[in-house]
Structures are given as structure tokens and as C-alpha cells.
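User: Here's a chain of 399 residues. Predict its fold as C-alpha cells.
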Amino acid sequence: MLRDNPDAVDVRIYGTNVQRDAPALAACDVGEPEPRYVGDADYAAFALDFCRRHAIDVLIPPRRLAALAGRTGEFADIGTRVMCSPPAAVDVLTSKGHTYEAARAAGVPVPPWRVVSDADQFLAAVEELAADAAGERICVKPAGEFSAFGFRILDDRPLRLKDLLAAPLPLASVAAVAGAMRRAADEGESVPEFLVMPYLEGPEISVDCLSAPGGAMIAGIARSKQGRYRHLLDDPALVAIARRLVGHFRLAYLSNVQLRHRAGRPVLLEANPRPSAGIFQTAFSGLNLPWAAVRLLLAGDPGTLPVPRLGGRIAVTESVLEVAPGRPATHPEPVLLPEPALRSEPVLRPERALRSEPVLLPEPALLPEPAAVLPEQAVRPGPVHLTSATATATTAAAG
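Assistant: Prediction complete.
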């Protein structure tokens, strides 16, 4: 989406990953490894050095936001703009428990939840929520920023034959989870906070958001997930929930709000102050949200956005990419491209008239909310280098 941008600007994408041969790096022009187990200060030092060495213009981090959100001034000093929300928002939204507390205070519907950090708290939370859940199943997941890792549906029923013949689910018994927490505590291992809540059935709804600094929402595309299919939803009520969250937390540029239904009512699942891994799916609405965010960051103007085409259905499929022919599986070697020479073309050429036609699909439906009016700002000259990664910065090559 960044390379096929509506302004026809030549974009060079840099990527880093903790795995030197990560497939996502094959989509980048330049790829490098990054440190895996380091603290925030060391990670920020790595990112600053990377951006300095490669003259990066835009850094879009999908993770380690806490290490970078408070250092935007240091990056600006070396000529790099960081696409990131305020540190206060990052701090709250990287904890699901704090997110629910703040969202409820903002008037956003949330499911009941409990935050636990030991076996006794966990057992008490399960008992309390099960009594109020009216037959709903209960689930548990890490309360921090762990994506879907650690998520389990609690199920104490004996295994049935039909369970063996169906697709596997992330199930765990209450006793097994409590036992794991007890063993970790007995062995002196730190037990992180977990969230216990009703398991929300039905399709997950993801709202990809574009907003100006300060939280003024410019565009939001809602899509439901059901197996391999995604529906681009024309439902202003869902976008309105996302708009309230984005405004409350003053989120900037790209963010993502996830919802599910409980008793027929949409409730918050989680909110992320970063672009979602599935943002590429919004291209089929005719909007190029990543490029609009880059323009917004560098020039204070997202450009002329077409009215999104909603109501369609798309399918997410797999593809095969050869990254290193003949490489031994036991000792992988990195596939890293050489450092390029710096270019002299500007990021956004002032002399070029910006195109206003849709990126992919014509004749879109009506936009559910008006676009924000942003002040004009001089376009920053200089080469366009965008970092892209699965752990440091992601643009079009999220993996």
C-alpha cells in the first residue's frame, strides 16, 4: 500500500526482525536483524542507530511502543518522524485491564473482567464471573501486549469424540491454569497479570482508524472476521465506538479498535495504539490508510481521501515465497540486502498535483463520518525511507 500510493511517490522500505531470515524481510528493500531480549533503553538506542545509519524519514513501530513513544524528540533530531500516539495512551492501552477501566469511564461498553496474578485470585474470578455470565464460557489471557498468545477458553468438560474430529480450540481446564500459576510461584517465577472475562462468541470486528494528533478521527474502516473471510462493514455505530475511543485516548495516525458482540450489543475487546497486522485488507475499500498516515505525519495533511466502498466481502489466502533456495534448515543464514545509496527525491513533491481518485475500487458508498479538516503545512523535503518490521517498525510488510 505504501509503494502503490496515490501520489506515485517512490518509497523505499527498511525492515528489522529478531529472526534474521524472517519472511517479512523479503518484502523489504533492506532488512536487518534486531535485538530480541533487551530493555526499553537499549531497544530505543538500537532504533535510533538504525534510523541514523539509514537516514530513515518515517518509523512506524508495531511493537515496543513504550520504548519509543517518549523519544520522538530524539528521533526528530536525526531527521526521523515516529508514527506513534502519546506515551500516556501507549501506557494505558498496553494493559488490557487499564484499557477497560479507561474505556468504561469514557462511556464505551466493555464486558465484565477481573485482573489476576495468582492462582487464588484466578479461581475466585472464575467463580464470580461464571455466576454472573448466564451460561457464557469464561476465558483467560495475558493482560499485557501479547497479541493472541496465551489466550485460553476455560473448559472443564471431558473430551468428546466430536471434539477430536473438529478443528482444535485453545482450551484449558480451570485446574490446569491454576496449577500452572501455582507452580510458577513455587519455583520463584514471576507471574504476569492475566485477564479473566466471558468468552465473547461471534465474529470479531476490527476497526482500522486514521486520526490526527490530538485524536480527531479522519476515517475508520470496520471489518468482521469469520474464518478466511472479511466483510467490509457499512455500520456507522461500530465506527462511532472507535471514534470515541480514539478521541478519548488522543490517538494519532494509525490505530485499531477490536469489538465483539455480547447479548447482541457491541463491546470493546481491545484497543491498540498502532496499525493492525490486517490493515492491508482495508485497501479493498479504496482507501490507502497507511499512505494517508505518512502524509499526515510528514505534511500535516492526509491528502484527498476517496469515499470508502463498503459492504464487500474479501478472502484472506496464503501464498508461497522462496526466500533462500537451498538453505539448510538447521543453520539458516540471513537474507539481507546491501545498504542502498541515499536518494535525493523528496518524500512528497510539492510541484506534483495530488491525485484524488480511489486507490483500488471506483464508485464507493457514502462515508459514515466527515473527514477532519487539517491546517496546511509545508511539505518536508528529503528522501523517503520508511522502516518496516515485525517488531520494530511495520509498514506494508507486517508479518
